[in-house]
Write a structure and sequence with these properties.
This protein is of the alpha+beta class and 390 residues long. The protein folds into three domains: 85 residues, no CATH class; 109 residues, Butyryl-CoA Dehydrogenase, subunit A, domain 2; 135 residues, Butyryl-CoA Dehydrogenase, subunit A, domain 3, CATH 1.20.140.10. It is built from eleven helices and ten strands. The strands form three sheets. The chain has a four-stranded mixed sheet. A four-stranded antiparallel sheet has the order 2-3-7-6, with no helix packed on it. The protein has a two-stranded antiparallel ribbon with strand order 9-10. β2 and β3 form a beta hairpin. α7 runs parallel beside α9. The longest helix is centred in the C-terminal third of the chain and has 29 residues. The protein is globular. It starts with 6 loop residues before the first helix and ends in a 6-residue tail after the last helix.
């Protein structure tokens, strides 16, 4: 299946490709992995600033936020070209795609300056949502923020906070009204990580014990200025939903890219492998078709938030299933950390991609980040299929 676009969209694509050809730094060829999603190497900060200054960082934003007021289809081809070349738009994806977006949507003019500094690569940001007893159920969070005059006093714990130990600020969801219904007593605070009382503890995750991205974050009597409240007091649920919406918007495109790469490198050796390969191909086409239909609806102004759950569920589960089958087909060789070679990076074809075991182990994160598969199934059941709540 091949998507076609109007001439103006293809002109937009051509202008972006020309920008990449002229400005893409040579360091991008290395596809360097930083130490966390809160750490941005100096060259990548400069590259992010160049994108911002030319209006190509997030094209859908207004020019003052590094964009050019691009429409949905233009944003799609922008993401498609980045994916095709495997170029990192930013090494701080939470800061770029979630925190800055939330500040632009819900923040004050002063907080818009925070957003600009994040978008220009001058600061990095993390998201403080999950807690030990509040993962998928964000409304169960217990980190407290008590308003005391011109500041909040924050106490509690977050976990799975990607890049927190390297981030300059954490957009943190806290409980500000313990007596309200659990969805109604939440607020969002922008908390600089250099404030007294904050402790960040990075911890390892599979398959790479040297990959220290996740963090536990502890808040002990942290004093946060009142003006760091994002959105309305006790209106954090609206901010949270907006934040997750930003995260899920074109998430299906990254899954489609991963499925395409699996199609290219899966090597079936038995009839059962061939059957699994056929399923992978069908899933790849189905995701591309459903995603394209959602894109067309959004371009007509009929965006379907619940439909994004279908794409998220299909894409993440298909990547996980195909990775498992590719690992099985590779046999013992699949345990090698670099068995998948070839077009992992069109900029540098000599690079090797992570091996099949690494890919399978990492695939579980795709079914959690951006909303777990269980949460997506609940949304689909209620909002797409119209089933009653259990």
């Amino acid at each position: 299946m091949k998507l076609t676009f109007d001439a103006d969209v293809e002109q937009f694509r051509a202008e972006f490709v020309a920008f990449l050809d002229e400005h893409l730094p040579p360091e991008a060829d290395a596809v360097e992995r930083p130490r966390s999603t809160g750490h941005v190497p100096d060259w990548a900060r400069r590259w992010q600033r160049v994108q911002f200054d030319h209006g190509w960082l997030v094209p859908g934003y207004a020019p003052e936020f590094g964009g050019r007021n691009a429409g949905v289809l233009e944003q799609y081809v922008h993401s498609e070209e980045l994916a095709r070349r495997r170029i990192y738009q930013s090494y701080n994806p939470q800061g770029l795609g979630i925190v800055a977006a939330s500040l632009i949507t819900f923040g004050t003019p002063e907080q818009h300056e925070w957003a600009r500094s994040i978008l220009r690569g001058e600061r990095t940001a993390a998201m403080g949502m999950s807690e030990p007893d509040a993962g998928s159920d964000l409304a169960a969070l217990r980190t407290r923020a008590v308003l005391d005059g011109d500041h909040f006093v924050v106490n509690g714990q977050k976990i799975w906070t990607s890049g927190a130990h390297d981030a300059d600020v954490i957009l943190t969801f806290v409980r500000t009204d313990p007596d309200a219904a659990k969805h109604r007593g939440i607020s969002a605070l922008l908390i600089p990580t250099d404030l007294p009382g904050i402790e960040r503890r990075p911890f390892a995750s599979l398959p790479d014990p040297d990959d220290l991205d996740f963090n536990e974050v502890f808040f002990r009597d942290v004093v946060v200025p009142k003006e760091n409240l994002v959105g309305e007091l006790n209106g954090g649920w609206k901010v949270a939903n907006g934040s997750l919406g930003h995260e899920r918007n074109l998430l299906w495109l990254s899954y489609s890219d991963r499925l395409d790469h699996l199609v290219d490198h899966f090597r079936p050796t038995t009839p059962l492998d061939a059957d699994h390969y056929a399923t992978l191909v069908l899933d790849s086409y189905a995701l591309r078709l459903l995603g394209s239909a959602a894109l067309a609806r959004a371009a007509r102004g009929n965006a379907d938030a619940a439909g994004l759950s279908v794409l998220k569920l299909l894409g993440s589960e298909a990547v996980q299933t195909a990775s498992e089958h590719a690992l099985d087909a590779a046999g013992i060789d699949g345990l090698d950390h670099a068995t998948v070679t070839g077009e992992f990076s069109p900029l540098n074809p000599e690079l090797t991609a992570p091996g099949w075991f690494d890919r399978y182990a990492r695939s579980f994160a795709h079914t959690i980040a951006g909303g777990t598969s269980e949460i997506q199934r609940n949304i689909i059941a209620e909002r797409v299929l119209g089933l009653p709540r259990g």
